[in-house]
Amino acid sequence: MRSLIVKSVGTALTLAILLAGCSKLGLDKLGLGGRPAQSKELPSPRQLKRIAYMSQSKGGPNGRPIYDHLEQAKSCHDLGIAMRWNRPPDIKGGPFNERMTYISAGVPAGLSKESEVFLTGKIKAGQSMPSGGSVWALTLPDGSEIQAIESPEYTEKQEEAQQQPGAPQSTSHPYTPGRLLCVYGVYQGDIGMALGKPQHVPLVSVLFAMDRSK
Asked: What residues contact 19, with CB distance under 8 A and at least 6 apart?
């Protein structure tokens, strides 16, 4: 695990650039909502019924309702549905006015650096860093590995939100191997380090993370 952190130090410089462009990002909305365009890739009515327990607000453009507390999601699957409603993959939006890439297996070939991504991976290992942030080695559904790093700024935002009375917990056992970690973040290229191996893997700078059993 020590090697997981030591090899991640060099990537911290990348996070400083990311934070400068995301400083206005809020935890509740995560820059979600996008522009009021007609998407052809919204979740189905059946999928939306599944997450009817999650709260909504008219925080989107032109009063379009969006899921405003993503930490209420009971599973990574449910979070994925809410994310697709808030940020359909075929519509530009969010803090960078770009399309969201939903990674269902491995990282797509040719994915541009600084692309916004949403993914779910199984935790191989993870722990907090001396800086106060977090680092994980995750296995994607196709068996490939990625490294995910959350800066102290976003870790603190999540911890503050969870301290509110009755607030849902986005993270409860975020470093337990075998649990799922659903991640919204920014792809930084193949500059991460594999766990225990001298090889590079895709790196994602985490803006919001949630651990669940399924």
From this structure: 151, 153
Tell me: pLDDT of 22 over 90. Answer: no
What's the full length of the chain, in residues?
214
What CATH number is associated with residue 91?
Answer: 2.40.50.140
Task: Give the model's confidence band at 12: pLDDT under 50 very low, under 70 low, under 90 confident, else very high.
Answer: very low
Query: Percent helix, strand and coil across the chain, each rounded to 5?
Result: 25, 25, 50
Contact 92, 75 (CB under 8 A): no
Distance CA 155, CA 210 (A): 11
* Token pair in block for residue 162: 């969870």
Residue type, 160: E
Instruction: Please state whether 90 falls in left (phi above 0), alpha (psi between -120 and 50) or beta.
Output: alpha
Element (H, E) at 124: strand 116-128
193, 201 contact by CB (below 8 A): yes
Q: Is 95 helix (H, G, I), strand (E, B) or coil?
A: coil
**Residue 184's domain spans which residues?**
2-212
Instruction: State pTM to two decimals.
Output: 0.82
CA distance 204 to 154: 14
